Amino acid sequence: MALYIRDGSLADLSNDVRLAVDTGKVSLGYREVLRAVNSNSAKAVVVASKGKKDIVEDINHACRIAGIKLIQFNGGSLDFGTVCGKPYSVNTIAVMDPGHSKILDEEY
Known about the structure:
By secondary structure, this protein is an alpha/beta fold. Helices cover 41% and strands 20% of the residues.
């Protein structure tokens, strides 16, 4: 069962996402995230809640089926891309290894 976490600080989530991208192992983008979810290599998925609706729904469904933690980033894909340190929009990331981030342990 996917776990939805909506409370907590956006700044804390942003910091943990950036730490996971910089020090851990993540996949960015819709196809790569679905591949990670379907192969059960993803431990958590973060999705931009104001991103493309069909992508958000597909990722939500895949995480629910696989029982992977789903975290909603309260912002658009451009904002999420900036948080990830990318100069382009990012709708979703899969976290395989959190690195120094506490993204798997925290509630947002």
